[in-house]
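<instruction>
Derive structure tokens from the sequence
<data>
Labelled lines for chain and fold
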Amino acid sequence: MLTGTTKNLGVMGWPIAHSLSPVLQNAAIAKAGLDYVYTSLPVRPEQLAEAVNGLRALQFRGWNVTIPHKSAIMPLLDVIDEDARIIGAVNTVVNDEGRLTGYNTDVTGFIQALLDQGFNPAGREVVLLGAGGAARAVVWGLIKAGAKVIHIGVRSPQKVQPLVDEFRPYGMLDVYHWESEPFQQLLGTAELLINTTPLGMTPHLDGMAPVDWSKVRASAFVYDIIYTPAETRFLREARLHGHATLNGEAMLAGQGAAAFQKWTGVQPDLALMKQKLRETLQ
């Protein structure tokens, strides 16, 4: 029941009707018995500054941030957490009596999903497919987790070289054309293979980055951050070749759980959030 003491949370984006965050967060709020409510916040790009000031004035406890505001919101906040600063994107804002702090919980969601599957990236060799916006959080998460080296495969290595140069002070990275022979050979030594491209996402189910599965290390763990469909072509082919696999559901729920904890100080029921996500997707 909403009362005069109910604290407000939300997710800001444009468009925003497709967001699954209200389902996950309100389920977690109800389970924890908290006096909070979480809603969608449609914000046009040209009205972002007004929206941030309005939410501050309305005493919103916090909100998530999604496309197209993740980078644009950063100058409007009072404090930027290190993860968000290095990644160059904010997905969570916490309002402490008018002081707005920006975080990026995608890092936590990505790594925790791996750890929950019993795979620790520390000291491991990684092959990463794609280097778009989502890849930045993945790369930083792997570096923080202690990955030995990250080999990035893309269509246009020259466009990605600045990203490699930016992150190289923190860890070992290199970039290749993903159809080149040197890159395909790296598939035989990598212990973790990750897709961060949108290839294979609904409705384009046949899409997949070029991978010669005969070259992939037999024991490699395969991770696709896409969650619609639950099993992309990339994951299906990996499974058929005997690899352990993971989709993006746990990352999505995990980043939401990390945001929830920052707003409320309470650890949410992550299993429930994952369950509600899968039910909604189905």
In short: Residues 253 and 274 are 6 Å apart (CA to CA). The chain has ten helices and twelve strands.
